[in-house]
Amino acid sequence: MLVMGEVHTGLLQNSGEISESTCRQVLGLMTGETVRVSRRPIVHALSPERLTGVDCALPTASRSRVRGVGTVVSRCAVTGGRVAQGSSYVRLVRSEADRRLPWSHYLARPGVVEVLGKAKAADLAEGFTGDSAPGCLNLGAVSGRFLDLVQASPLLDRRAPFKIPRTSLRWVAETGEPSIRFTLHTEQERTLRLTHPGPFTPAVVDLCEDLATHDWLLTSLLVIVERARIGGTPGAQAAARLAPAIDHLMHLWMPAARVEEWLTPFWESLERRPGFTRQWRSLVDRVRDQVAMNALALLSATAEAGRR
């Protein structure tokens, strides 16, 4: 029918960037399972996948009662030793039995939730990306809990250099003519509707997580620039407020670096509109210009003092 998921993204609760070896330990939440790490073009560590059993109502736009039984796949990632993510997703399929089966049946199909009752894919997609009724499948709660588990690691000093809220990206992927629609709902909530050719593969999850990472980076940089109150505060004070962006964020921007080639046209579409990288570069230029102007002012003041 369709695949839906939710990604929560936030700043890793540590005073500085953590090393690759620390990433492995922080994400090593399951004994005997391997944390996957890639080093190019940026260090990215991915935890083993965990399953959560669910038996609950599924969100529908029509508010019709539809039941789902199965397992949710969850994982956590750390990018650049700085950005942490909790991600969960399920693939919805119609139940052939139309009744609940023993849990052994569902455990043998990880990440699949079987739909019991009559339901249309469009109704489920609209319900999931809209306002879900209480008691329905809540992938955000699963992702958030998994991310909290990582953030509570004793290996982290919990002295983050600045405070930035988490963002959540709720996404739905279907098979059909290629299209993508990204929507900002609030300062922290986003939705993504994706239609792609061919059957679902985990590469679609990678795309959604990559988009969530860069949306959070862009949102965080925008917040830091707004907090600096450029033009409304002394140059040195504004530059000091911009320093966290330079130290912790600006080097992390690498959209689609880990996205499979057949999915890159979706990123390219988002680059045209709304234009993630265009806005990012504008903000980065503003940060660098402000820091440069402050440095010139300090040099001028020092030279003037030396002439006295």
Word description of this protein:
The structure is a single chain. β5 (67-79) and β6 form a beta hairpin. The radius of gyration is 22 Å and the shape is elongated. Strands 1, 2, 3, 4, 5, 6, 7, 8, 9 and 10 form a ten-stranded mixed β-sheet that branches. It has helices at 20-27, 103-107, 121-129, 139-151, 202-228, 235-248, 264-272, 276-307, and strands at residues 2-11, 36-38, 44-46, 50-57, 67-79, 83-94, 112-116, 167-175, 179-184, 189-196. 38% of the residues lie in helices and 25% in strands. The mean pLDDT is 93. The protein starts with a strand and ends with a helix. α5 (202-228) packs antiparallel against α6, α5 (202-228) packs parallel to α8 (276-307) and α6 packs across α8. It has two domains: 2-216, no CATH class; 219-307. The chain has 308 residues and is an alpha+beta fold.
Estimate the strand proportion.
25-35%
Radius of gyration: 22 Å
What would you call the shape?
A: elongated
Distance between the termini: 77 Å
Q: How would you sum up the major sheet? A: 10 strands, mixed
| Helix-strand string | EHEEEEEHEHHEEEHHHH
* Number of DSSP helical runs: 8
Low-confidence runs of at least 5 consecutive residues: none
Fraction of residues in H or I helices = 25-40%
Structural class: alpha+beta
